DNA sequence: TAGATTGTTAATCGATTAACAATC
DNA sequence: TAGATTGTTAATCGATTAACAATC
């Protein structure tokens, strides 16, 4: 938190507490816009012309008051007594999220996860274009993954610059993540989606979002344990004198290649 | 929101607003415990005996006031003027998260992502044991992935029951996710980690957490756009009369198999 | 005792929600 | 006009943070 480098704060806050500039859409609302968009797109495909806040909220898995409040930050796009025009709302939300433009991304680290992401259909359909797949393992170079040749990480800087890549996806092992991140940032990337289980340090102005399998599972385990505890009842049995064994060891490798 | 089925609320809330029972640890704190645990485990491996809230907070990427507040929900495990005993804290957090017990999980849908998860080292090291890999494609049955044979989804119910699986990971295409979810829940699974881009409906008492690639990227794009907007300055140019084209289409496939 | 650092308080901030007036 | 549904208000709740007394 010193040195002019900021460290991502909570698991997923991006850089911005800054009520995101302009009119200022709250972070919690921004995080839900993609959910609404997905539900709306499904309605659009079924040629449903309009939808009420109640229906759309149910489809997106939120309550309707929250949805209306969220939409109120975007403007008044509904019609009282009627609902929202599906197509129009799809467009407005897409525009708000920046999905009406082209976003070239690079994926660094082409292990199983990198593969999975490269093949992910949700990419292309939302304005995200895979500009390159990069891996530190020269043996992978040239190999086709999802129709694209894997290229060596030596080419990272050149690709980021020439393709004007502003978003980088890191699927390397944790040990390589910070270094890859530094290089991406130095080359001009200002948003990073990090799948490596590491805290990345980035300069101000760079957003980092983190996806962490292990953390999600641990949170589930916590709740699962509490459910089981309903039967046992945790009679606040105090702390055993000795820490004992059972200490969890860190063996966090998400992928094998790259760096 | 009717029928006794609850729908997961925000992207990642699990079922519990219930200040998680007992002493009641806030959800935001629970979500950070794995981060602290990771940082502590790294210190433990370097044989660091004690750590201050300031140091640990920096390593975990949070501020120290938040960390101390978080720890205060667990108990008073520090020593004023000294800091926290690393090993002891690792043990306490592990215990709190339920990681000192064995959690058998099944992964349903063995495409690239299922592969990546099966190979994920962070699993085994934290008490999570892959009890089975399941896929609806019979052609995959018997094939070894991460040393385990893929089994047909027909065996799902039997495996969940016999292995006492309470956590299921869904990496199927979106179309199959709800059905797979229903079967898992019917068989006894009470926590689900969903990678398919679908809102899952589950009965009360079942926790769902969602990991969604596309959503994370869209949130990054939003912030990225705002950064660019600093130059252009969005002079509140009002809504174009016609929605126009550029409508984003839904082609969300995360994987190919299963269901 | 002096220095360091925790654990807690209290203020602030942001997010959620119910309720309802506005209005189609 | 009557019915439906939005957009907004205001109350509530939960999370963050700085500051500092307690205490090692």
Automatic annotation (TrEMBL), chains A, B:
Gene Ontology terms: cellular component: cytoplasm
Compartments (UniProt record): Cytoplasm
Superkingdom, taxonomy of origin: Bacteria
Domain named CoA-binding: residues: 98-199
InterPro entries: CoA-bd, NAD(P)-bd_dom_sf, Rex_actinobacterial-type, Rex_DNA-bd_C_dom, Tscrpt_rep_Rex, WH-like_DNA-bd_sf, WH_DNA-bd_sf
DNA-binding region coordinates: 35-74
Gene3D superfamilies reported for this sequence: NAD(P)-binding Rossmann-like Domain, Winged helix-like DNA-binding domain superfamily/Winged helix DNA-binding domain
Keywords: Cytoplasm, DNA-binding, NAD, Repressor, Transcription, Transcription regulation
Principal cellular location given in the protein's record: cytoplasm
GO molecular function: DNA binding; DNA-binding transcription factor activity
UniProt-annotated binding residues for NAD(+): 109-114
Gene Ontology BP annotations: negative regulation of DNA-templated transcription; response to redox state
Region named Disordered: 1-24, 230-259
Pfam families: CoA_binding, Put_DNA-bind_N
Alphabetized HAMAP family for the sequence: Rex
Protein family membership: Belongs to the transcriptional regulatory Rex family.
NCBIfam families given in the database record: PRK05472.1-3 (NF003989), PRK05472.2-1 (NF003992), PRK05472.2-2 (NF003993), PRK05472.2-3 (NF003994), PRK05472.2-4 (NF003995), PRK05472.2-5 (NF003996)
Quaternary structure, from the entry: Homodimer.
Function of the molecule: Modulates transcription in response to changes in cellular NADH/NAD(+) redox state.
Protein name: Redox-sensing transcriptional repressor Rex
């Amino acid at each position: 938190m010193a040195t002019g480098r900021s460290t991502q704060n909570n698991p997923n806050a991006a850089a911005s507490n800054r009520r995101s500039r302009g009119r200022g859409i709250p972070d919690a609302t921004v995080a839900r816009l993609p959910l609404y968009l997905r539900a709306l797109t499904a309605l659009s495909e079924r040629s449903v012309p309009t939808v009420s806040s109640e229906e759309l909220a149910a489809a997106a898995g939120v309550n309707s008051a929250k949805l209306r409040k969220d939409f109120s930050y975007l403007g008044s796009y509904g019609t009282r007594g009627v609902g929202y025009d599906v197509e129009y709302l799809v467009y407005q939300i897409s525009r708000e999220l920046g999905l009406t433009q082209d976003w070239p991304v690079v994926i660094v680290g082409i292990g199983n996860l990198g593969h999975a992401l490269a093949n992910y259909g949700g990419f292309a359909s939302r304005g995200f274009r895979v500009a390159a797949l990069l891996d530190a393992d020269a043996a992978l170079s040239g190999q086709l993954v999802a129709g694209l040749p894997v290229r060596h990480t030596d080419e990272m800087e050149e690709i980021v610059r020439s393709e004007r890549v502003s978003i980088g996806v890191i699927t390397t092992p944790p040990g390589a993540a910070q270094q890859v991140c530094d290089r991406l940032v130095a080359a001009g990337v200002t948003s990073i989606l990090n799948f490596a289980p590491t805290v990345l340090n980035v300069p101000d102005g760079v957003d980092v979002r983190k996806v962490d399998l292990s953390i999600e599972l641990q949170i589930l385990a916590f709740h699962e344990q509490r459910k089981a505890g309903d039967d046992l009842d945790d009679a606040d049995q105090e702390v055993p004198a000795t820490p004992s064994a059972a200490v969890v060891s860190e063996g966090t490798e998400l992928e094998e290649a790259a760096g």
